[in-house]
Amino acid sequence: MKKAIVIGASSGIGRELAIRLSKGGYLVGVTGRRVELLEEIKEMFPQQILVKKMDVTNTEEAMKNFEDLIGDLGGLDLIIINAGFGHINKELNWEPEKHTIEVNALGFTAMVNVAYRYFREEKKGCIVGISSIAGIRGSSYAPAYSASKAFISNYLEGVRCLSKKEKSHIKIIDVKPGFVDTAMARGDKVFWMAPVEKAAKQILVAIEKGREKVIVTKRWAIIMRLMKILPEWIYSKL
Ligand SMILES: NC(=O)c1ccc[n+]([C@@H]2O[C@H](COP(=O)([O-])OP(=O)(O)OC[C@H]3O[C@@H](n4cnc5c(N)ncnc54)[C@H](OP(=O)(O)O)[C@@H]3O)[C@@H](O)[C@H]2O)c1
């Protein structure tokens, strides 16, 4: 039986990924702070879900919990690091900026660290990070969020190059979602909002195909290309 862990599986994209992996026959470790929501997933697949409470911002404890969870599962083939925090923060209040960096950059790095070292020993494995199309440019609406997502993409690229150099046979996949209909995106003025089921399905297909970088849903590739070439004097007015 293949084994996967979804970091941040209590709601939204992570929850849908955990459910789909279970339906696909995986044994799945699910983590997050809201254990009661994780237990709901376990009730759906009692034989296939292992729950572990985890706050990725408590890095030392989270890394230990992650290692324990790999032991409880009896190994690991796939890790999806999905936990994330985003906040519109034009006022540049410190707490949300700090928390965003703690979850999306510090917590994320801690999880990759454990996963990479584990898979290096195994000489196989797959690490998936959920960044965002927001990482392509700095955002005046959520500066820490866009910067932290750029960090994720950049970090994954570095680790992918390391894996290739070391011939460690670890697949490293960067998933960049556009807007997906979850608690995080709700309330914003959003367009092209993808249902969470569609986004999760595309993510799992990309993992199966072993693609290194993937934009979900696919139509967001157009926006990515436009954002990349837009001069800053226009971009700054958006
Ligand atoms: N929705 C979008 O439009 C969109 C677009 C681009 C990228 N993304 C990215 O997709 C990922 C999933 O987001 P979502 O839209 O599905 O939002 P969501 O429903 O709010 O899910 C966020 C998940 O992250 C977990 N999490 C947050 N802080 C955590 C912490 N300190 N420790 C451990 N887990 C933590 C949450 O679990 P607990 O609260 O239980 O801890 C939850 O399971 C995020 O990385 C997000 O940045 C989303």
CATH architecture tag: 3-Layer(aba) Sandwich
Query: CATH first level: which class?
Result: Alpha Beta
Q: What is the structural class?
A: alpha/beta
List SSEs in N-to-C order: EHEHEHEHEHEHEHH
Average per-residue pLDDT, rounded, comes to 96
Main sheet: which strands, in order across?
3-2-1-4-5-6-7
| CATH fold type | Rossmann fold
- The fraction of residues in strands falls at 15-25%
Major beta-sheet overview: 7 strands, parallel
Overall morphology: globular
In CATH terms, the superfamily is: NAD(P)-binding Rossmann-like Domain
Task: Describe the protein in words.
There is one protein chain. With 238 residues, this protein is of the alpha/beta class. The chain has a single domain, classed as NAD(P)-binding Rossmann-like Domain (Rossmann fold). 50% of the residues lie in helices and 16% in strands. The chain starts with a strand and ends with a helix. The model has no long low-confidence stretch (mean pLDDT 96). The structure holds NADP nicotinamide-adenine-dinucleotide phosphate. The site of NADP nicotinamide-adenine-dinucleotide phosphate has 30 residues, from helix 1 and helix 4.
